[in-house]
Amino acid sequence: MNIDWHEMHETFIKDGERKVWVHTWGRDCDGCESDSIRLINANETAWSDLENDAYEGREGPVRLTIISEEEAKEFKSSFRDTYAERMGY
């Protein structure tokens, strides 16, 4: 992914380094969905490492989205068992 980290409004400086919050969402083969956020350095190496971590061993779709610091402050992680929901559990 080619990202111009210095032009992004979502980046900010923390401890002398440019940072960015990333929201990760995924669903496994059993229909369980979960999400989380992670603060990474705003550069290609950190993004690539996060992508590798997110996709390693995955059994379903994954989405990585850069979010603002305000969105990160309001974030609450979630977990859903979509198959159980469909069955009325």
Report on the architecture of this protein.
The protein is elongated. Helix content is 26%, strand content 38%. It has one domain (5-86). It is built from 3 helices and 5 strands; from the N terminus they run E-E-E-H-E-H-E-H. Strand 2 and strand 3 (32-41) form a beta hairpin. The longest helix has 12 residues, at 44-55. It is an alpha+beta fold. Strands 1, 2, 3, 4 and 5 form a 5-stranded antiparallel β-sheet that branches.
Distance between the termini: 40 Å
* Helix count from the secondary structure assignment: 3
Strand fraction equals 35-45%
Question: Quick one: how many beta strands?
Answer: 5
Helices and strands, in order, run as EEEHEHEH
What's the alpha carbon Rg, rounded to whole Å? 15 Å
- What is the mean pLDDT? 88
| Biggest sheet overview | 5 strands, antiparallel
Q: Helix content range of the residues, please? A: 25-40%
* Overall tally of structural domains: 1
Unreliable stretches, pLDDT < 50, 5 or more residues?
Answer: none
Specify the overall morphology: elongated
Find the structural class using helix and strand composition. Answer: alpha+beta
Short description, anyone?
It contains 3 helices and 5 strands; from the N terminus they run βββαβαβα.
Features:
89 residues, five-stranded antiparallel β-sheet, 3 helices, 5 strands, 26% helix, elongated
Helix-strand layout with pairing:
Elements: E1 12-14, E2 17-27, E3 32-41, H1 44-55, E4 62-67, H2 69-74, E5 78-81, H3 82-86
Antiparallel strand pairs: 1-2, 2-3, 2-4, 3-5
